[in-house]
Specification:
Bound molecules: adenosine-5'-diphosphate, magnesium ion
Number of helices: 4
Distance between the termini: 22 Å
Order of helices and strands: EHEHEEHEEEH
Length: 171
């Protein structure tokens, strides 16, 4: 496991951007962390690093957002799904084995569908950070985050090594 610390949304986005540059077709990145942890901010960075078009937003009622690009980014937010039998999961598997890279928020909701080879990213707010339970509200509240990378499979182990060599949060 590799852990980075970031101290602002900007730094989290930059780290996502560095990862995004390493991603290719079929790569699956799962993002865990409580509401407001910074999952969507990280995915915004991934999108920038991949050079895809379109703004990465927090979920509306859409489960999957497609961002066209040389390698497309499929942004899945499974928050509203109630397990793999939920009708909303229909079609997700095609994205998982498609020609784009996939970012999945709330992957626990669709655990059974996740490929064995993937990169888990766990974002947490340190216990002493005391953000007072505020809801996400843009870039106005910089705070510390711990971002842990847990690669499953040789490909993603190598990717995390590359990320360690390239990323310099805080600079
Ligand atoms: P999630 O998708 O995990 O629910 P968002 O990415 O939508 O969370 O929101 C993260 C919130 O936390 C934003 O309001 C952002 O400004 C704030 N924040 C504060 N510090 C950080 C940080 N270091 N990294 C990412 N987000 C941060
Ligand atoms: Mg989100």
């Amino acid at each position: 496991m590799t852990v980075f610390q970031t101290s602002s949304p900007h730094e989290t986005r930059k780290l996502g951007e560095t990862l995004g540059r390493l991603l290719g077709p079929g790569d699956v990145v799962c993002l865990e962390g409580e509401l407001g942890a910074g999952k969507t901010v990280f995915v915004q960075g991934m999108a920038a690093g991949m050079g895809v078009r379109g703004r990465v937003a927090s979920p509306t009622f859409t489960i999957i957002h497609e961002h066209p690009g040389k390698v497309p980014l499929y942004h899945v937010d499974a928050y509203r799904l109630e397990g793999v039998d939920d009708a909303g999961t229909a079609g997700i598997e095609e994205y998982l084995y498609g020609r784009g890279a996939v970012a999945i928020e709330w992957p626990q909701r669709i655990q059974e569908l996740l490929p064995d080879e993937r990169l888990d990213v766990v974002i947490s707010v340190p216990a002493d950070a005391d953000e007072g339970g505020r809801m996400p509200d843009g870039d106005s509240d910089p705070g510390p985050r711990e971002i842990a990378f847990l690669p499953h499979g040789e490909k993603f182990r190598r990717m995390v090594e590359e990320l360690k060599a390239l990323a310099h949060p805080g600079h």
